[in-house]
Amino acid sequence: MSEFQNVTIVKQANVYFDGKVNSRTIMFADGTKKTLGFMQPGEYTFNTADPELMEILAGELDVQLPGCDWQTVKGGEAFNVPGNAAFTMKVKTPSDYCCSFLK
Length: 103
Description:
Elements: E1 7-9, E2 14-16, E3 21-28, E4 33-39, E5 42-47, E6 52-64, E7 71-74, E8 77-81, E9 86-101
Antiparallel strand pairs: 1-3, 2-3, 3-4, 4-9, 5-9, 6-7, 6-8, 6-9
Enzyme class: transferase
Organism: Methylomonas methanica (strain DSM 25384 / MC09)
Keywords: Glycosyltransferase, Transferase
């Protein structure tokens, strides 16, 4: 899906790691939430509450999920993050993403 319809967008940006990672929150009528964001090259560790689906729309990065080896993810690929976990990404090239929060 290349676009979302009938959504509410939170105007305030989510800014992390001194502005190197930022996103906007999108709310759907059914209560689900996603963020659309952009990451500059660098290494970032995130903590999750709920499980997430991370879709990499463009760019390339390495990700280390809990208990797993590093894996490379490129534009057009995705990975799942468990809830209540930490994961690290080494962003190799500027990367565009969509994060879906799964409950």
